[in-house]
């Protein structure tokens, strides 16, 4: 499909990933993950803005994985993108978050921009290898966007703006006040260093410390027409942003769980001796340790199987473009909510309970096993998983569909 075809098809994504595509991008992601693993704990403790890590993502080609091949992008599918997030999260969940949010933010070119503008945005993003950050926190509505001549003026602030500290492009959402577009939901893209945009380096949290999720303050920022990506409509395809980002979350949590298991296994196998009451030579032989891993590994495998299936379902749905219906979107959101529930609960439990097998020595700061728990515990609070459980339960019992928002 060409960019010109998107006037009717609405997006350049069609079909699903084949085995060769998955293998190709899995290998790229694994190479990046291996590099990040070398000093992930040290970088987490330094809590610096991840400029070097961002460049690693860009140089690997992962940042353009989803972009149109005809314009120099990877031409790959969402399943491959989600798998990349999962693989990197095993080693460095902060950088996996940067990448996952980038995929959703940059996808707004296809979902939001007018057809005639999509090529311009894609070409710039691909050629300059933009990493897309965001400033869209919907529970922090502290922006004022007012008409000013042909453009707008932007004032206020947003917290939890992932990628804002390092991204070349900053996606901003705000509701227009006054003028011909009063009440419309605007999607703006501001370049790094844009006049009046203040990046506040205040992200100092328990986990996800390198996600560059800073506060951004806007001081009488001039927004030109060229900075406007588009405006919100009731079109079902536009609302794929929310199930898309929830699917990022699920794969992020799954990757963290897999990483915690992998590190815990190595620690357990390396433990000398065994508990004196066990009657076995090593901790790896202890039946209680084996039972624990049997449970956790099986649960993670089940989440992985569901994540792979739902990733392909996302590709099939978004590939319908302008033909996708509200019912299609609701069905997809329901499936992703199911995955969000089990991935969140499983990852938090796994990252916590592996200590039962690795023992007191694994709590030493130099070991860094705590990084997995700190990361998943921090990000899993993004939006309450209990509300996802209510969403799934209500739909199962009565068929009710949650109203569309930036969380549902």
UniProtKB/TrEMBL annotation:
Top-level taxon of origin: Bacteria
Chain segments annotated as coiled-coil in the UniProt record: none
Taxonomic source organism: Microbacterium aurantiacum
The Acyl-CoA dehydrogenase C-terminal domain, residue ranges: 247-383
All copies of domain Acyl-CoA dehydrogenase/oxidase N-terminal, residue ranges: 21-123
Biological processes annotated in GO: L-leucine catabolic process
GO molecular function: 3-methylbutanoyl-CoA dehydrogenase activity; flavin adenine dinucleotide binding
Keyword flag Transmembrane helix: no
Keywords: Oxidoreductase
Protein name: Acyl-CoA dehydrogenase
């Amino acid at each position: 499909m060409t960019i010109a075809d998107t006037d009717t098809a609405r997006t350049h994504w069609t079909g699903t990933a084949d085995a060769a595509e998955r293998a190709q991008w899995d290998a790229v992601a694994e190479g990046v993950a291996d590099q990040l693993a070398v000093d992930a704990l040290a970088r987490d403790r330094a809590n610096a803005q991840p400029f070097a890590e961002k460049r690693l993502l860009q140089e690997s080609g992962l940042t353009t994985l989803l972009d149109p091949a005809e314009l120099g992008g990877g031409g790959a599918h969402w399943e491959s993108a989600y798998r990349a997030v999962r693989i990197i999260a095993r080693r460095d969940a902060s950088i996996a978050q940067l990448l996952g949010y980038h995929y959703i933010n940059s996808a707004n070119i296809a979902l939001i921009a007018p057809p005639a503008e999509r090529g311009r945005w894609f070409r710039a993003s691909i050629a300059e290898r933009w990493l897309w950050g965001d400033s869209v926190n919907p529970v922090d509505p502290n922006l004022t966007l007012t008409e000013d001549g042909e453009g707008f003026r932007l004032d206020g602030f947003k917290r939890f703006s992932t990628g804002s500290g390092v991204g070349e492009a900053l996606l901003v959402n705000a509701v227009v006040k006054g003028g011909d577009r009063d009440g419309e939901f605007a999607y703006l893209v501001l370049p790094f260093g844009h006049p009046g945009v203040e990046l506040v380096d205040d992200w100092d949290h328990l986990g996800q410390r390198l996600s560059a999720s800073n506060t951004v303050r806007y001081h009488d920022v001039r927004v030109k027409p060229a900075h406007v990506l588009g405006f919100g409509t009731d079109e079902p395809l536009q609302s794929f942003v929310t199930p898309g980002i929830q699917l990022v979350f699920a794969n992020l949590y799954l990757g963290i769980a897999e990483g915690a298991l992998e590190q815990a296994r190595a620690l357990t196998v390396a433990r000398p001796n065994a508990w004196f009451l066990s009657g076995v030579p090593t901790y790896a032989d202890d039946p209680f340790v084996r039972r624990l891993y049997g449970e956790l590994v099986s649960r993670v495998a089940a989440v992985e199987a569901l994540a792979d299936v739902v990733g392909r379902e996302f590709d099939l749905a978004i590939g319908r473009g302008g033909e996708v219906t509200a019912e299609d979107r609701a069905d997809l959101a329901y499936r992703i909510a199911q995955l969000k529930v089990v991935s969140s609960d499983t990852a938090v439990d796994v990252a916590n309970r592996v200590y039962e097998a690795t023992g007191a020595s694994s709590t030493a700061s130099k070991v860094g096993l705590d990084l997995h728990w700190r990361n998943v515990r921090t990000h899993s609070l993004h939006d309450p998983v209990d509300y996802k459980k209510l969403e799934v339960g209500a739909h199962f019992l009565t068929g009710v569909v949650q109203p569309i928002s930036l969380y549902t």
